[in-house]
Amino acid sequence: MTNYENELDKIRIKLYEETSNMKKDEIVKMVNTHAQKIAQEFGIRIVKETNENYFQKINT
Length: 60
Known about the structure:
Layout lengths: L2 H17 L4 H19 L8 H9 L1
């Protein structure tokens, strides 16, 4: 196993430990908060799209 894979495993374990006792909506809020910070830092614009639009694209 490479150092890269070991580091990913450490991150996965840390995320699991941080979220194992959280409710789904708490996890979603945490992930969204982190994503917003990262997007702002790198100048990425987040576009919200509803599931309705997604399903229309799949079914057509």
